[in-house]
Amino acid sequence: MCMLSYAAAGTVSIGTASARGDMRVDSYMVKGNATLFDGSVVETGQATADLRLDKGAAITMSTNSRGTLYRDRLVLQRGESELAASSPFKLEANGLRVTPNEKNSRGVVSLRAGNTVEVASLNGSFGVMNDQGILLANVRPGSVVSFAMQAGASPTSFSGVGLVSYEDGHYYLTDSANVKYEITGKDFKQYVGTKVVISGTVQAPAAEGAPSVISVSSIGINGGTTGMSMTTKLIIGGVVVGAAVGIGVGIAVSSSSKPPASP
């Protein structure tokens, strides 16, 4: 094994990368281990790569994947990566930000065909936000959620199904992606405890930890109070949110040695 580093003057290491085969780090072909710096680009071929950050995050990049690593995030540009984080860290893909909701969460983020991102939670849960800071979904353990980007869509549009509740003088909608929004713009008293379909515009929360706010333009009853399904189309800020099939398992089974990637 060899440890290679590609530090520019004045840079400080943020972690290490290792692979059972070849990988590229900042365009250099590496066999074994490499030192990582803020902004390092890691590319895998026919072997997975394990990234270990000084702050406690652990990332496994699947075969044929590419990402840029920073102190607080990985920007996935191709393929699939598994994230296990004991400290705040996020994984970005196609403009979406995937962040663990609790310590020791473990999940897989995949870039799929058709401008789609899939997020699977293996342990703990993950919040998925768009680039406007609007929470799109809370991905629960054992579930997989897909996010399909719509070209030219409004970044503040909302349409979907949810359950209306009333708390402390405010009305809320909890949608099929496990996200709770405050809703305004109409009298919602008759809808409390009912599943409804709504459309309107959504804005990022005014304060950290507060829910996003939907200004409702239309609302109608859509069945009973239970059985909300991710098969019902949910569109938030031009992103179609829905259930996906299967969890990315390629990372877990491909850590053994494989033929080296072509230079």
Sheet with most strands:
5 strands, mixed, barrel
**Discrete helix count:** 1
- Give me the side-by-side strand order of the main sheet: 17-18-19-21-20
Number of structurally distinct domains: 2
Task: Note the run of SSEs as H and E.
Answer: EEEEEEEEEEEEEEEEEEEEEEEH
Q: What proportion strand? A: over 45%
Structural category: mainly beta
Distance between the termini: 18 Å
The CATH topology of the largest domain: Jelly Rolls
- What is the helix content? under 10%
- Gyration radius (Cα, Å) is 21 Å
The coarse overall form would be elongated
Q: Averaged pLDDT, please?
A: 86
Record field, number of beta strands: 23
Give a quick precis of the structure.
By secondary structure, the chain is an all-beta fold. Helix content is 2%, strand content 55%. The chain folds into 2 domains: 148 residues, Jelly Rolls (Sandwich), CATH 2.60.120; 80 residues, OB fold (Dihydrolipoamide Acetyltransferase, E2P), CATH 2.40.50.500.
Outline the structure in words:
The protein is an all-beta fold. The protein has two domains: 2-149, Jelly Rolls; 157-236, OB fold (Dihydrolipoamide Acetyltransferase, E2P) (Beta Barrel). Helix content is 2%, strand content 55%. It contains one helix and 23 strands. The chain has one helix spanning 250-253, and strands at 2-4, 13-25, 28-37, 40-44, 49-53, 58-61, 66-69, 73-78, 80-85, 90-93, 96-100, 105-112, 116-123, 126-129, 135-139, 144-149, 157-167, 170-175, 180-184, 195-203, 213-221, 234-236, 239-243. Strand 7 (66-69) and strand 8 form a beta hairpin. The chain is elongated, with a radius of gyration of 21 Å.
